[in-house]
Amino acid sequence: MATTHYRSCSLCEATCGVAIDVDGDQVVAVRGDDADPFSRGYICPKATALADLHHDPDRLRHPMMREGTSWRELGWDDAFDLVARRLRAVRAAHGPDAIAVYQGNPTVHNLGLLMHGQVFLRKLGTRNASSATSVDQLPHMLAALSMFGDQLLMAVPDIDRTEHMLVLGANPVVSNGSLMTAPDVKGRLKAIRARGGTITVIDPRRTETAEIADRHLFIRPGTDPAFLLSMLHVLYAEGLVRLGAVAGFTDGLDELGRIAARYAPEATAAATGIAAADVRAVARAFAAAPRAVLYGRIGVCTQELGGLAAWLCYAVNVVTGRLDSPGGLMFTTPAVDLLPLARRVGFDGGHARWTSRVSGLPEFGGELPVVTLPEEIETPGDGQVRALITSAGNPVLSAPGGPRLEQLLPQLDFMVSVDPYLNETTRFAHVILPPTSSLEQSHYDVALAGFSVRNVAKYSPPLFERGPDQRHDWEIFAELAARWYAPGGPLGKLAVRAARRALLALAPEVVLELGLRAGPHGLKKGKDGLSLAKLRAAPHGVDLGALEPRLPGRLNTPDHRVKLVPAIYVADLARLDRRLAEWVAPRAADALLLVGRRHLRSNNSWLHNSARLVKGKPRCTLLIHPRDAATRGIADGDPVRLASRTGAVVAPAELSDQMMPGVVSLPHGWGHGRPGTRTQVANAHPGVSANDLTDTGFVDLLSGTAALTGVEVTVERAAAVRDSAHTGRDDDRAGAAASSPP
Predict the structure, then answer these.
(1) Surface-to-core class of residue 248, CB atoms within 10 Å of its CB (0-12 exposed, 13-18 middle, 19+ buried)
(2) Is residue 153's pLDDT more than 90?
(3) Which residue has the higher pLDDT, 536 or 495?
């Protein structure tokens, strides 16, 4: 007989409540939890993948060691000893910076990885640590650090109370929100219009979000800072600046006005593609709305001037009185306060305290940009990377320069991956340490609750007990830490046992209990305060109320004031001025600009091994405007060769007037079917990797974030294709690297 279990889906930022029916050791159904106070029964198609991932025959269950081109299982103790010994040897011979770390974004969905994983990975002492942050939200984190005093103080749109939402470089209907934890974003957006509000979307593609908006404007990829400065120009010139509640503790208002005065809409229209009259209309409507919010996301961050763009998104909200105001941009009051917890496990705030050895890109929060990884592996000298640890990440597909990384990973002295799959990256590891599935783990969204549009808390116990020969992520890192920090010699084994007991005693639930009691809804509320026991007794979750004003108390700047115009952004305006002149100059006749996109059934590369999520017509297609296709003799469905300065791929064309003329779109996370991987479903639906085209040298120099938006490419009809799916890589050098044994 089936039993029903309630938990939060951990596959994206929406944290939807799910009801999972289990019969014995089998998941028989996954549906929305109608009693969840936050998601209220909504789920997206990805939720079914919780079952697919758990039952996936390709998922690794035991440690694996590579021997040449073959793999064999290894016992856990032998695997831990081997990894610790090999990493120690690299450090002893070449120093701490010879070990690099890469963490993928599933880390933020995993309580154990946020606890024990960070204690180990961030305490190794290497400067060559990186993560998905630098191909995602880093510019927002830099703005939060510079303006509010902490990299995690990223305010979120109060979407449930706003009356005017301006969406820039984001597609929340498909992403389910991002840095905006909000189940059923589509329903919440429709509710804005139902209560008489409006939605405006500015994007190089008429996205799924734009389809339900009141207005959509095309913008040339990468020109967001120019548009935002022109919007600020209008706000200042027409006397529409109103700081509201933050006026008493905000510095830099007049300085920002002097900067904006240089960027009239007429001066930026040719670059952005947005007419001056439209800029003025957008600014006036935003200022006039009683409650409004500007939400900028991935397209804002992953561009050549992403640092400036993210800062200016915050600045527009501040000068119109939207910061810390209901219906505007607000800070959460999560049950577990992430800020002090993050500092304890190694998330320290800082920017440009050192730079990368080769290209001189700045450190942020203790990490270097992931674009530095290939050059740090291939460049000899002190600090050259000779060993790599990857955790929940697949940088061959998710980071720029994938083919280059494929060539370099086999050259490492040692590589270990904590990952459940033999994928495009882990196939090069010497050892793979596979964790349990998410349904075998307890769950609490300690990170994502910090960006929730409503204050909620929910704990989910495991659905299935882990097997005796399985390990959770946090147990893997606890064991590695025990061996790493224990002394050698006769006392070594005793020290390892003592360290193991101490670390394993700090199970995620122990840390969670402490965090709940110390948090704003905990002990200070007396007997009504939250505890883990109360969350266990509320399987659908607990509603803690709407977002509340939190400033100036939440600020962490030295004087607890908002810094509206940090000096780093003023200095970076010179880059914008140079690019403005270049944007209006004639381009090569055949040049197009590449942007990415997401799909509701996809989330990075790791969900492509779910047959239910990849079924149907191919989704890894190149969207191209009919006019651009016609000038190149391309018909709908034709295979086309898409080439950049760094590589080329072949993909089917999909003609669409959703695209801004001169712009094409390829989705993120594909590129499977490479030799040495064991993901049968994904390999049968390979697609192509957009990061075979992106460039490790095309970055936002201020933040170090990879510029994935606005890559210049050429497109032509392919004369021949290599497989029946009419997709593939078209770079001989990269193809040779992929086919060589790991």
Answers:
(1) exposed
(2) yes
(3) 536
Closest C-alpha among 335, 298, 333, 338 to residue 114: 338
pLDDT over 90 percentage in the chain: 84
Q: How confident is the model at residue 498 (pLDDT cuts 50, 70, 90)?
A: confident
Q: What is the pLDDT of residues 53-84, one digit of tens each?
A: 999 999 999 999 999 889 999 999 999 999 99
Separation between Cα atoms, residue 423 and residue 427, nearest integer Å: 6
Residues 6+ apart with CB under 8 A from 178: 13, 137, 170, 172, 297, 298
Distance, C-alpha 709 to centroid of its chain: 15
- Both 621 and 658 in one domain: the answer is yes
Mean pLDDT for the stretch of residues 696-706? 97
What letters, b where the CB count within 10 A reaches 16 and e where it falls short, cover 602-631?
A: bbbbbbbbbeebbeeebbbbbbbbeebbee
317 and 204 part of one domain: yes
Q: Looking at residue 88, what is its pLDDT? A: 95
Q: Are residues 229 and 290 in the same domain?
A: yes
Q: Measure Cα distances from 178 to 94, 126, 182, 619 in Å.
A: 39, 29, 8, 21
Structure tokens at 360: 């001189």
* Residue 620 reports pLDDT greater than 90: yes
392 with 507, same domain: the answer is yes
Whether 142 is in a domain gets the answer no
Q: Which of 35, 55, 75 is the last residue of a domain?
A: 55
Q: How far is Cα 435 from Cα 446, in angstroms, rounded to an integer?
A: 20
pLDDT of residue 739 exceeding 60, the answer is: no
Within 10 angstroms of residue 493's Cβ, the number of other Cβ atoms is 11
Would you say 518 and 337 are in contact if contact means Cβ atoms under 8 Å apart? Answer: yes
Kindly state whether residue 153 falls inside one of the protein's structural domains. no
Q: Tens digits of per-residue pLDDT, 287-308?
A: 999 999 999 999 999 999 999 9
Residues 168 and 129 in one domain: no
Q: Are 248 and 393 within one domain? A: no
For residue 738, name the pLDDT band (cuts at 50, 70, 90).
very low
698: domain CATH number is: 2.40.40.20
What is the tally of structural domains in the chain?
4
DSSP 248-291: GGEE-HHHHHHHHTT--HHHHHHHHS--HHHHHHHHHHHHHSSS
Enclosing domain of residue 189: 158-324+553-570
86 and 214 in a single domain? The answer is no
433: which strand partners?
A: 418
Q: CATH number, domain at 82?
A: 3.40.50.740
Residue 29 counted as domain residue = yes
pLDDT in tens, 231-263: 999 999 999 999 999 999 999 999 999 999 999
Classify burial at 518, counting beta carbons within 10 Å of its beta carbon; exposed 0-12, middle 13-18, buried 19 or more: middle
Q: Is residue 534 in a domain?
A: no
Residue where one domain finishes, among candidates 523, 539, 570: 570
The residue count of the chain comes to: 742
